[in-house]
Amino acid sequence: MMRKLQFARKGAADPKALVIFLHGYGADGADLLGLADVLAPHLPEVAFIAPDAIEPCKGSFGRQWFPVPWLDGSPQAASDAGIEVAAKDLDRFIDARLAETGLGPEALVLVGFSQGAMMCLHVAPRRALPVAGVVAISGRLLFPERLAAEVLSKPPVLLVHGDEDPVVPFADMARSGDALIAAGFETFGHVMRGTAHGIAP
Predict the structure, then answer these.
(1) What's the structural domain count of the chain?
(2) Domain range spanning residue 62?
(3) Over the range 70-84, which residues count as b (16 or more CB within 10 Å of their CB) and which as e?
(4) 99-128 tens-digit pLDDT
(5) pLDDT in tens, 82-98
(6) pLDDT for the residue numbered 200
(7) CA 143 to chain centroid
(8) 157-201 tens-digit pLDDT
(9) With 80 as the cut, is the pLDDT of residue 60 above it?
(10) Which alpha helices (H) appear in the chain, and where do they start and end?
């Protein structure tokens, strides 16, 4: 049976652009959808959508896009397989939201936090047509060694990271950026000074 992501939506009813928020491990879509309240007055023609990852976190509250071995004790093989399953879920979800709004990928921005940022950076380059952009906050590029061989499109990428992040090391921002640049992506970075694993005001 095909897995479908549940989601909530805010913003324009008849949008000219779309933002999809992808939450982090242990959260759900509501965790980021509140950003729409801040952004909507400045982007009145944009719809904001935030899906919930399908899988519940093992032995914890919230949801996960894929298992995390150092958090839940899962084997690495399960994590790697989970990434690919979640990527297919997300691809179908993106296709469905674009179809129902009548928008093309050039009108879509993916914004992810932590594990959601990892999903953005994994899925967007492997879609045939580029989205308008990717904003990856406090995440990292998964499988950087595979990127150049698997890339199908190259949307611009903004990497945002706190320099005091104890969960996803700040150094991962530079490593991800280096791999993206080497693969030909237009890549930008913003450092949240004095910020741990979160989103600075």
Answers:
(1) 1
(2) 7-192
(3) ebeebeeeebeebbe
(4) 999 999 999 999 999 999 999 999 999 999
(5) 999 999 999 999 999 99
(6) 87
(7) 15
(8) 999 999 999 999 999 999 999 999 999 999 999 999 999 999 987
(9) no
(10) 30-33, 35-39, 69-72, 76-101, 115-123, 144-150, 171-182
27 secondary structure, DSSP code: B
- Extract the tokens encoding 96: 């469905």
Ramachandran sector of residue 108 (left: φ over 0; alpha: ψ -120 to 50; beta: rest): beta
CATH code for the domain of 111: 3.40.50.1820
Residue 140 lies in a domain: yes
DSSP classification of residue 53: P
Residue 134: both structure tokens together = 């990717």
- How many whole angstroms separate alpha carbon 155 and alpha carbon 148? 14
CA torsion angle 190 113 87 171 (round to 10): 50
Cα four-point dihedral sign 56, 61, 66, 70: negative
Cα torsion 36, 136, 125, 140 to 10°: value is -150
Placement of tokens 């896009």 in the chain? 65
